[in-house]
Amino acid sequence: MADLDVGQHCQVEHCRQRVLDFLPFVCDGCSGIFCLEHRSRESHSCPEVTVVKERLKSDTHASYPCAFKGCAEKELVPVTCPHCEKNFCLRHRHQSDHECEKLELPKPRMAATQKLVRDIIDSKTGETANKRRKGAKNSATAAKVALMKLKMHADGDKSLPQTERVYLQVFLPQGSKEKSKPMFFCQRWSVGKVIDFAASLASLRNDNNKSTAKKLRLCHMTSGEALPLDHTLEAWMAREDCPLYNGGNVVLEYLSEEEQFVKNVDSYLE
């Protein structure tokens, strides 16, 4: 009777099977010899399987989901709100865009400061109430005329419905290659989002999310006032006192934290 205890042992620990010399199962991953039951890489815990799994795991990029309710966007890098410390997508990174729980409403003191600035400007220019009304009327008329030209040349998000677009002639920071650029934005956007979008269209340096000496601010062409980042264009267009006009002009300039308005706004029109 032939001896059945011939050949090599299967290299799986505690396996009593022997591999016949004329029918070996050699793993092409680890080059080990195994019985029929343990010939697959998974069944004998082949080291090559572990290496492949680790490589696949390391190749998977981390993603950061947006915390805004109903948003499924993800970013490859974290975009954290410095106020509520939650992560958001680029679309919802500003406080007003993600309805930040730490968003502070304009304080009366700030409103009083803004009124004081406007009063100082009015006193310097010697405007009377009648002249302001006349100037506002002239500005509105000029904006309507300019709007027709802006619609033909302005850059913006083409997916925005016409009913939501606000066309503005954006005067760029002093020293820029271009003096101004026609653009259009969504009327519901916050001023902060408008600045980011305009900076991208004009290829301007934008360090508004960093601690820098000066940051980009959007300023009213008439008063020179830097518009609050969390206000919307729609709110400023609805103002009775010194509103923004669809087809009007605005100034994009680098200002320090202490500066509340642009000086000598007429220089941008020269």
UniProtKB/TrEMBL annotation:
Record has Transcription regulation as a keyword: no
GO biological process, one term: positive regulation of intracellular protein transport
InterPro entries for the chain: AN1-like_Znf, UBL_ZFAND1-like, Znf_AN1
Pfam families: UBL_ZFAND1, zf-AN1
Transmembrane segment boundaries: none
Record bears the keyword Zinc: yes
Keyword annotations: Metal-binding, Zinc, Zinc-finger
GO terms of molecular function: proteasome binding; zinc ion binding
Domain AN1-type: start-end pairs: 4-54, 60-108
A GO cellular component entry from the record: cytoplasmic stress granule
PANTHER family named in the record: AN1-TYPE ZINC FINGER PROTEIN 1 (PTHR14677:SF37), ARSENITE INDUCUBLE RNA ASSOCIATED PROTEIN AIP-1-RELATED (PTHR14677)
Full protein name: Zinc finger AN1-type containing 1
Lineage: Eukaryota, Metazoa, Chordata, Craniata, Vertebrata
